[in-house]
Write a structure and sequence with these properties.
Layout lengths: L4 H12 L28 H10 L13 H6 L1 H17 L5 H4 L1 E7 L12 E7 L1 H20 L5 H5 L4
Antiparallel strand pairs: 1-2
Helix pairs in contact: 2-4, 2-6
């Protein structure tokens, strides 16, 4: 049993922040189907507005310390700036360093008898709201493209949300 604070931290770090191993892809056949898909890269103010409004206002704060409620309240003034920022990210194929920052919190699972077992803890990663918004817009667009061009089999399409 670990008793010192430093040993406990070391155990938690090893458990939650391990280095993932590389997947073995040698058994995958090399057959590719090339499909040319054209779509508008430009993100619209409407897309940004809908995405920001969809986020719950009182969710936990994020790495930039901009609350969801504050961003939603000032959306009318910030919409053109956010839209320009998101479009610049796409045009320059660059994901801002600020968007990559997260705050990770370790929570104890409730009503467990033994908190020495590392399975009794859960990691919660708090992402930047603007990063989440850009990611959400891109996921929706990719999902629409995949659906429109029938890029997944029916079995795969059944497990999609909605």
């Amino acid at each position: 049993m670990t008793t010192t604070f430093k040993k406990k931290i070391k155990i938690l770090q090893e458990k939650f922040f391990f280095s993932p191993s590389q997947a073995n892809v040698n058994d995958i056949a090399e057959s590719f189907i090339f499909l040319t898909v054209s779509f508008n890269l430009r993100i619209t103010e409407d897309e940004v507005k809908q995405t920001i409004k969809r986020v719950k206002a009182d969710k936990a704060s994020n790495a930039s310390d901009i609350s969801n409620r504050a961003l939603q309240a000032s959306l009318a003034e910030l919409i053109s700036v956010l839209t320009s920022l998101f479009n610049a990210c796409i045009t320059h194929k660059y994901h801002l360093k600020q968007f990559k920052k997260t705050q990770t919190i370790v929570l104890c699972k409730l009503k467990k008898s033994d908190y020495i077992d590392l399975k009794m803890y859960q990691l919660i990663a708090l992402l930047d709201i603007m990063s989440k918004a850009l990611k959400s817009i891109m996921i929706k667009r990719l999902s629409d493209i995949v659906k429109t061009h029938h890029m997944l089999s029916n079995a795969q399409m059944r497990v999609r949300c909605k």
